[in-house]
Amino acid sequence: MPVLDILFYPDPALKRKSLPVEKPSEDLNRLLDDMVQTMHDANGVGLAAPQVGKNIRVLVVDVPFPEEDKSEFYELINPEIVSSRGFQMGEEGCLSVPGFFANIRRKERVQVSALDRTGKRFTIDAEGMLSRVLQHEIDHLDGILFFDRLRRLKRDLLVKQINERFVSARD
Ligand code: NI
Fold first, then answer.
1. Spacing, Cα 132 to ligand 1 middle (Å)
2. pLDDT at residue 66, rounded to an integer
3. Could you confirm whether domain 12-170 is CATH 2.60.40.1220?
4. Where exactly are the structural domains of the chain?
C-alpha cells in the first residue's frame, strides 16, 4: 500500500475549502486506506485529505488512550459538527507544519456526524483529545490551519517564524 506525500505549508491545497464527497466509491476507499497508512507512518493522530492534495471532505483520526491501552480510530466522510459545548486549551501541531506547536482554544465536547466508507451515517460524541483532533482535522477541510485559531498577535508571530522556515528556505 503506497504512502502518500504529505503537503507542507504554504502549499495552496492547504488553504482551499474542500468539496463534499458525492458518494463513496472504490477510489475513495483506496484513498482512505492510503491516508490511514500515511497517518500511521507519520505517527500522526489525524490526517485530512487536503494534506495529501485531495480537496475533498474526508479525514481519518486515530487517537491513542494509553491508560486504557486502546485508540479511537475513525474514517469520516463529509463530517459536520452538529453540536458543541465548553472550552479546552491544549498544545497542537500539524503534520503539514512540522516542528511548530501552539496552545489552541477548542471546544471541550463536540458531536460530529459523518458518513462511513459504506455511506452509512454515524455520530461521534467526543471530548478531550479526540474532540480536539476532530476539530483540527475538520478545520483542514475549510482551509484553516491550527495557527489561524490564535489571537492576532500570537498568530502573526508564529506565522512569521513558520514563513522563515518554510517560505524563505525555498529561495
Ligand atoms: Ni493538521
1. 11
2. 74
3. no
4. 12-170
Give the CA count within 13 Å in the CB-facing half-sphere of 130: 18
pLDDT for position 67: 78
Please say if 127 is a catalytic residue.
Answer: no
Q: Which protein residues have a CB closer than 5 Å to ligand 1 (ion)?
A: 94
Q: Assess contact for 164 and 7: CB atoms under 8 A.
A: no
Q: CA 97, CA 129: separation in Å to the nearest integer?
A: 19
Decide if pLDDT at 171 tops 60.
Answer: no
* Ligand 1 mean position, distance from CA 48 (Å): 7
72-106 pLDDT per residue, tens = 999 999 999 999 999 999 999 999 999 999 999 99
The answer to whether the CB of 51 falls within 8 A of the CB of 61 is no
The CA-based angle 72-77-61, given to 5 degrees, is 25
Distance (Å) of CA 110 to CA 70, 119, 124, 136, 167: 21, 21, 8, 12, 34
- Identify the helix (H) or strand (E) that includes residue 112: strand 102-115
Express each pLDDT in 105-152 by its tens digit. Answer: 999 999 999 999 999 999 999 999 999 999 999 999 999 999 999 999
121 Cα: distance to centroid of ligand 1 (angstroms): 24
